[in-house]
Amino acid sequence: MGGALRNKWHLTVNEKKRKVMIVNNDNSNMFEKLWYFNSNLDIVNSYEYLGIIISNDCKLSMAYDCLLTSATKAYYSLNNTLYIHVLQ
Predict the structure, then answer these.
(1) What's the whole-number mean pLDDT along residues 14-22?
(2) Span 48-71, mean pLDDT?
């Protein structure tokens, strides 16, 4: 099927970015290895898509933590910039 899709739609797969995330409720890995043509695919527990971290257990705790960290950094950076301008 991969070859048919590749030929029909003229798609190419970036081998450096090619990953697989298996999503299930019991957090077990049902596959030891997965292959795409003759290349082994990396199985990952989480994946970042459009800036949001998606985990294989379908929980958003990793995404919340990452967003909170980014927002905190932005807040303190803005606060520091405003404080410097007030002092001048």
Answers:
(1) 82
(2) 85
Bridge partners, residue 36, by sequence? 39
Tokens linked to 88: 């001048």
Where does 1-88 have alpha helices with state H? 2-9, 61-87
**Stated pTM of the model:** 0.55
> Strand 19-21 and strand 34-36: pairing?
unpaired
Q: What is the pLDDT of residue 73?
A: 93
Contact 46, 54 (CB under 8 A): yes
Domain that holds residue 41: 2-87
Closest CA relative to residue 55, chosen from 81, 20, 23: 23
Which tokens belong to 38?
């003759």
Domain count for the chain, please give it. Answer: 1
The strand ranges marked E within the chain are: 19-21, 34-36, 39-44, 46-49, 52-55
Tell whether the model's pLDDT for residue 43 goes beyond 80: yes
